[in-house]
Amino acid sequence: MADEALFQFLHSEIIQYVNSVESGESENGRCVSKLESMGFRVGQGLIERFTKDTPRFKDELDFMKFICKDFWTSVFKKQIDNLRTNHQGIYVLQDNKFRLLSQLSSGKQYLEHAPKFLAFTCGLVRGALSNLGVKSIVTAEVSVMPACKFQVMIQKM
Amino acid sequence: MADEALFQFLHSEIIQYVNSVESGESENGRCVSKLESMGFRVGQGLIERFTKDTPRFKDELDFMKFICKDFWTSVFKKQIDNLRTNHQGIYVLQDNKFRLLSQLSSGKQYLEHAPKFLAFTCGLVRGALSNLGVKSIVTAEVSVMPACKFQVMIQKM
Question: Who is most buried in A60, B2, B34, B137, counting CB within 10 A?
Answer without folding.
Answer: B34
